Amino acid sequence: MKEVTTLALALAAALSLAACGQGSTPQTAPPPAADTAAAAPASPEVATTPARMVLPAEACQRSEDGFGAFFERFVQDPAVREAYTAAQLQIGDLRDPAKPMQTMPRDQAGPFRIALVDSQWVYDEPGKDADQLERIDSRRTLDGDSMRVDYVRAEFTPDDDVANTKGAPEAYVFKYEQGCWQLSQQLR
């Protein structure tokens, strides 16, 4: 009888913790013991993408805070980046958004250019060591089911203000689809 009571208390505690952790986003299940799980594809395009990893519930909220949690994982983990990038990316012109976009497979679209090094956002360039990467100035804009991340290489003052920018600005656009964010566009 003591074992049943202990089991019942443990189950009640687990359910209570799960309810607290879910917040107001019931569409995302808590992560399983293993960090990955396959999601059922909803369309033929999604069927060609790698199995989606289960992320913490807060990372898949349709909000600025949710995107912030998602984006940090996306930037730091290549497996998350692959799982949450559309199979076909739209490549567009940042200076002329009205121009039709070109579509290309994600593996031909070039490397993802934003990295996080020592708590600083940097412009990732293959072949360079982390201490050689330039910092970026970035801005996020939430518009309905889209989050746009504009970024440009920059030099900063000692007070962390932007002193000047270098090179052409670029942007990534993420769409909220299938209960989480997905990289869908690159604007150059």
Detail the topology: elements first, then pairings.
Elements: H1 2-22, H2 44-47, H3 64-76, H4 78-83, E1 85-92, E2 102-105, E3 114-117, E4 120-123, E5 134-143, E6 146-156, E7 162-177, E8 180-187
Parallel strand pairs: 1-8
Antiparallel strand pairs: 1-2, 3-4, 4-5, 5-6, 6-7, 7-8
- The number of strands is 8
**Overall morphology:** globular
Radius of gyration, in angstroms, nearest whole number: 20 Å
Helicity level, as a percent range?
10-25%
Question: For the terminal residues, how far apart are their CA atoms?
Answer: 67 Å
Number of discrete helical segments? 4
Strand order of the largest sheet: 2-1-8-7-6-5-4-3
Please mark out the parts with pLDDT under 50 across 5 or more consecutive residues, or reply none: 1-49
Order of helices and strands: HHHHEEEEEEEE
Structural class: alpha+beta
* Main sheet characteristics: 8 strands, mixed
Mean pLDDT: 79
- Content of β-strand: 25-35%
Describe this structure in words.
- The protein has 188 residues and is of the alpha+beta class.
- It is built from 4 helices and 8 strands.
- It has an 8-stranded mixed sheet with strand order 2-1-8-7-6-5-4-3.
- Strand 6 (146-156) and strand 7 (162-177) form a beta hairpin.
- The chain is globular.
- The N and C termini lie far apart (67 Å).
- The relative contact order is 0.14.
- The model is unreliable at 1-49 (pLDDT under 50).
